Amino acid sequence: MSLRRSIPFPRVTALLCALTASVATAQTKPHVAPVKDVTDTYFGVAVTDPYRYMEDMKDPEVVAWMKAQADYTRVVIDRIPQRAVLLSEIQKYGDAAPSRTFGIQVNGNHIYYYKRLASENIPKLYGRKGIGGKERLLVDPEAMKGPENQHYAIDWFSPSPDNKYVAYGLSLGGSEQSVLHVKNVATGKETGDLIDRANFGPPGWTSDNRLLYNRLQKLAPDAPPAEKYVNSRVYLHPLGSDPEKDVAILGPGVAPGVTIDPASIPSAATIPGSRHAVGVVANGVEREQTIYVATIESLAAGKPDWKKVVDPSDDVTDLTLIGDDLYLLSHKGASRFKVLKLDLKEPDLAKASMVVPPSESVVTGLAAAKDALYVRRMNGSTSDLLRVPYTADAKPVAVTLPFDADIPALAADARVQGVIYEAGAWTRYGGFYSYDPRTSRITDTGLQPQGPYDNLDELVATEVKVPSRDGTLVPLSIVYRKGLKLDGANPTILYGYGAYGISQTPVYRPTFLPWFRRGGILAFAHVRGGGEYGQDWYKGGYKATKPNTWKDAIACTEWLIANRYTATPRLAIMGGSAGGILVGRSITERPDLFGAANDMVPVSDSLRVELSASGVPNIPEFGSVKTEEGFKALYAMSSYHHVKDGTAYPATLVTTGINDPRVDAWEAGKMVARLQAASTSGKPVLLRVDYDAGHGIGSTKKQAYEQLADVFAFLFWQFGVRGF
Description:
With 724 residues, the protein is an alpha+beta fold. A hairpin with a 4-residue loop joins strand 11 (204-205) and strand 12 (210-215). Helix 3 crosses helix 12.
């Protein structure tokens, strides 16, 4: 079990042709947004913002403009020939496997996971006793009726140590505004515990089944959006009690002698068999953590005696606990990370022992089982799995994998032998495998049944390294059908992200087969700002060095053209969220290089992000306009401010969800308005708005399929592919 809690800002991960002139002219052109210039001066630099008013998403004028744009986009895309055919194919390939499973947790002798049947629209929560045990449906959001045109989704879950209860977060319309619920696992009945503002889940549990949960402060109706994630605290909640009377145990101004910044995000947890409670404090999205420990006795009394054992300067980004030993993932003096063991009986980090030394591989995760610590490492597009016994001076031993695979997740428990891990590849969906140390056997758990399109021979993945503008070699992964001719005419998507140290690891989805089977290429640019080569690679595309992110993407684009994979008229750049910086700045710096762009839930106006709800937690990643250095970096990465009038921009499809809690929908709106006003190419700039979605997390299968069909149809149309 890892003690690291999710923070809903970085990535989501999201991966999700010519119309006849008569069709194009049959529709009213998109409504022109009025210009209402506002000028700000930052450190002597005047910056004009023509669409500042769009930041008020309740303004009737803004609401009407967004709706008109959405309606226009819907009409245009629906009239693209074969759009319906694409959707039908996506459904066929996507629903061919009986079910899709993810998010597995091991909890004593039980396992829990999300699963969506092919016939269902949204994942549900299941549990079973042991891998071979009888499956039980625990939470079914599809059976819950929300307000008109809005659906429920599960945001997170956390079972109690004795498997008697499971806590879960439920939200509406992809908003991720979690309300904490608790169910009795045996009876399937709700306990009646309901706690709103529980966005930073999942919670921890004590051995006597009290919840350790983070709760956001209650805001006044007129509070600025940037106050939303400030002053959150960890509370101790006895089941059946009034949450308004819960005692805060960690957070700003809570514990004597513990100083926590109001912008920080605290969490707490215990591990069965350990005498210690652990408190983790994150400075927003910053990876480096502050770690506190307290005795179980003090926690039980509601007054934990927190003692700091790790400071952000120690460069620790992940941890797991077993007994008195705290295992830490750190990049201190080790860009590709190392694993340390800290004895909590004498918690002096200077005396911590090294159990996995730094190497050429990047250490990406830890999981503590009863028998050993399991460590995953990344080696380019594949991973390895190490087993480190708890005995003194034990050496890491590699666990043999069933195929060359990436390992995106581990699941283990301090009371259970072995580990369950997920494995997949660029051309293989993969599944979940268990390792039994008593027999050294790897077994397919069967939790992810294989569909007829999950492991096809027709696809191939190629790995190359491309010199960027400063000579740095950038990894580029290219996936396409075997036998494809490199004649410079292939429809191609270059996908990139480049933020938060998140790596673009191998992923394959059968829903992309309509793209591949029409000669399409999917290329992943592993740009700086990601974590593919560890901390140095991450910091190479961070704040002042952020231009490397889109310049790496441009270099990969030029390489694909030079090597005749494609050509500008049939090449699109794609990315989302923080990857919107990569997309937006690529097309504003080199508009001549791309035939199209798909900018999903994008960060577009970096200068104004700080004032949004998720702005304060993101300052550690992008910087602040309150400093001159921060302003310069943010201005350089702000796509919106680099759109130039009279420029021929590529065809662009921008997507957003109206309930997005991570990147406000006005960012997409402002970018579209600016591109529509500035572009002279005559190519469409469309805004796709989903009014029952947010950042894509919590969206239904139908929503995902519809959006993918829209993107493929838009690109095939713009690329002039026959039939579109």
